[in-house]
């Protein structure tokens, strides 16, 4: 019986142990058909559950006060060419430039994909 190559190191020497497939070279274990999306890249979604990718345009769905300023990003503000930040510890997982305000970070829960 032929088993698929290891998704982590591409080793051809994988074997089955119960319901898991195991790689003897890197010790990675997975179920057949399992995809590595959660380990290699975090999926970031907007307020409606649409998956966001780098370069998307989004619209702000809530007035957002800018910390340390009296300015506000208004509802309906369109933001072009966003850049996603995968491991944002503070929850601000979108880097962008907003016309009239400048560079800032946003939380994906306050935007929707255009």
From TrEMBL:
Membrane-spanning segments: none
Span of domain Protein YjdM C-terminal: 44-114
Family: Belongs to the YjdM family.
NCBIfam families assigned to the protein according to its UniProt record, in alphabetical order: phnA (TIGR00686)
Protein name stated in the entry: Alkylphosphonate utilization protein
Organism superkingdom: Bacteria
Residue ranges occupied by any Protein YjdM N-terminal domain in the UniProt entry: 3-30
InterPro entries in UniProt: YjdM, YjdM_C, YjdM_N
Species annotation: Acinetobacter halotolerans
């Amino acid at each position: 019986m032929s088993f698929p190559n290891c998704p982590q190191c591409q080793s051809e020497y994988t074997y089955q142990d119960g319901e898991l497939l195991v790689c003897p070279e890197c010790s990675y274990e997975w179920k057949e058909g399992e995809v590595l999306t959660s380990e290699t890249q975090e999926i970031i979604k907007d307020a409606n559950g649409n998956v966001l990718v780098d370069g998307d345009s989004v619209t702000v769905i809530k007035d957002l006060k800018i910390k340390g300023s009296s300015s506000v990003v208004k509802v309906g503000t369109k933001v072009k060419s966003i850049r996603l930040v995968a491991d944002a510890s503070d929850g601000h997982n979108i880097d962008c430039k907003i016309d009239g305000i400048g560079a800032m970070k946003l939380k994906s829960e306050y935007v929707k994909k255009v």
